[in-house]
Amino acid sequence: MEYKKVLKRIKKEIIAREKSSKKTVIKEINIEFDTIDYCLCTDSNHQFKKLYPTEYEAEKRAKFLYDEQGILLIAYPCPYSSGWHLTKG
Q1: pLDDT at 36
Q2: What is the per-residue pLDDT across 11-61, written as a single tens digit (0 to 9) for each?
Q3: Range of 76's domain?
Q4: Which one of 14, 18, 24, 74 is at 20 to 30 Å from 31 when CA atoms are compared?
Q5: How would you label 30-66 residue by residue, b for 16+ Cβ within 10 Å and e otherwise?
Q6: Is the pTM higher than 0.90?
Q7: How many domains, the chain?
Q8: CA 60, CA 84: separation in Å to the nearest integer?
Q9: Residue bearing the bigger pLDDT, 40 or 86
Q10: CA dist 2 → 27, 46, 60, 65, 68 (Å)
Q11: What is the widest separation between alpha-carbon atoms in the chain?
Q12: How far apart are alpha carbons 31 and 35 in whole angstroms?
């Protein structure tokens, strides 16, 4: 659901900034989308999955969770976008 909140915020910003300069709006929208760390993939609880930009980042998070909580997770590429998810091993 957090993804929907981000999209609503972006929509409000687009409308507000559209009056000033279309070139600025496009540039700032791209920056906003680059910072989104979720995609449309969902887990078994229908929550959006965290999207890691690289395999290294996903593996680093998996190692942290294993060290801290003993949870074994495996990184895999997102089938719909350029990023990585974690799944239970």
Answers
A1: 53
A2: 777 777 665 555 444 444 444 444 457 778 888 888 888 999 999 999 999
A3: 2-88
A4: 74
A5: eeeeeebbbbebeeeeeebbbbbeeeebbbebbeeee
A6: no
A7: 1
A8: 12
A9: 86
A10: 23, 12, 23, 22, 25
A11: 52
A12: 7
